[in-house]
Amino acid sequence: AVAPRALSHVVVWQSGQHPALPIEFQSSLRARRRIKATVYDLPGATHGRHMLVANEDVPDGAAVVQDGLFLGSARGLCLGSALVTSFAASRQDWSLLFLPPEGEGDPVELHGSVVRTEGNVAWLRWTGPSREQLARLGEGFLFTGSNGKFCPACLWIGRAVPDQFERNLLKVIVPVLKGPRIAEVIVAERDV
User: Fold this and answer.
1) How far is it, in rounded angstroms, from Cα 64 to Cα 45?
2) How confident is the model over 132-142, as pLDDT tens digits?
């Protein structure tokens, strides 16, 4: 059993082909002020860069989400536009949560940054628990930890598995979305 103080975040997750978000997760995300936006692929979008258009200014570091999936973080430009960098294309330090499949272990807190990418697969160099502990968990789900005022914990990034060949690397498979899509941008910590 996990001690209530063992983690700084709680992730409620249900796996499946198109998992429904748990009520607790929806409430957590809905407690934050969000604005609607449209995300467009830029030329070479396979490299993880997208243009975002909204009716309000977008703060730097704001999480861009679609149905609980973390699309990336925004860098506000002007007049409601922003450049979005996907998790796979980012090189920033991240606070993350690794959740093993149901019943196969406890959630694990990680810190790390993406060191290389091939298409929708990113290799994350991480620090946290021992490699052996993470390897015992096998494949799981990766979520954001708390990454600043506009990027809360518990946004789903993708599936993750410890790399077989290199120590402290986690292979992260991010869902591929193409074409214009409606998303939400988190612009405040609490709904006002």
Assistant:
1) 16
2) 776 666 788 99
Got the DSSP string for the chain? ---TTS-SS------SSSPPPPHHHHHHHHTSEEEEEEEEEPTTGGGSEEEEEESS---TT-EEEETTEEEEEEEE-STTEEEEE-TTT--S-EEEEEEPSTTS---EEEEEEEEEEETTEEEEEEESS-HHHHHHH-SEEEEE---STTS-S--EEEEEEE-SSSTTEEEEEPPP--S-EEEEEEEESS--
Cβ 84 vs Cβ 51: under 8 Å: yes
* Structure confidence by residue, pLDDT tens digits, 151-180: 888 899 999 988 888 878 899 999 888 889
Residue in the block written with tokens 């978000």: 21
pTM for this one?
A: 0.78
CA distances from 155 to 76, 97, 130, 150 (A): 20, 10, 24, 12
Summarize pLDDT for 50-81 with one digit per residue, the tens. Answer: 999 999 999 999 999 998 899 999 998 988 89
